[in-house]
Specification:
Blueprint lengths: L1 E3 L11 H21 L4 E3 L8 H13 L6 E4 L13 H10 L3 E4 L13 H4 L4 H15 L2 H4 L5 E3 H5 L5 H9 L17 H7 L1 E4 L6 H11 L4 E2 L9 H10 L4 H14 L5
Parallel strand pairs: 1-2, 3-4, 4-5, 5-6, 6-7
Helix pairs in contact: 2-3
Length: about 270
Amino acid sequence: MAVLSLAAPGTEAFEPDLGSKVARATNNELAEALARHPDRYLGYATLAPKDAEGARKELERCVKELGFRGWNTHSNFGDSYLDEKRYWPVLAKAEELGVPVYLHPTWPIIKEFQTYGSALSGPTYGFGAETALVAMRLLTAGVFDAFPKLQIILGHYAEGLPFMLDRVDRHHLQGRGHPDPGVAPTLKRLPSDYLRENFLAATSGNYSPHAFACTKAALGIGRMVMGSDYPFEDMDGCIRFLDDQPMSDTEREQMYAGTATAIGMAL
């Protein structure tokens, strides 16, 4: 069983009317493909969040009428990020529907990443770094206090954030981690609590045994889900790597099937 979604750059950066039309057409085409192979594929919605009300309704249509299992979005929307309040109605709808949001990298809008081209801004560093930044922006903005059941999937072993669990808490533990109250409220819990409870780490596109071991130790196998990054990565190589990692039979079953089933990636 594979979950299909629209690859970057997606529709998020389009102006609202065009984005909504392209997103709806994409979802309809994906639904037709799923209908042809109902025992093989599941789908994630494509949305145009700059039309937040339209995106909210389209997500509901995708889940309730087309049977999609989540929303795939990207690390930036051309000029903005998902944590901005104007996009919260879409996050609220995802929580209400009980579907996860896959936050996938795209080309960063941070200009300093662009100086050296794709050697810095691409999958080597910029993709993951910006996506991790957006995850932390969501957290710091209070999204998970507002929507405590919302689940965000991050690829590549959560873009390095499992390695940062102690570090992201340090300022808060020292009593200096509160944002300007005019910008965002003080968090109800430590950042690491949200990273452990509101984020899942997909195994996509990272073949480092150290990254696997760190994520497993920091988040637990129940917060890890098998992901391949296909067609950008080789499926056989992904499976060979995962099969070589030390896991009990129970842990292996959890990573390959249990977590996926829990978040709706199963018939």
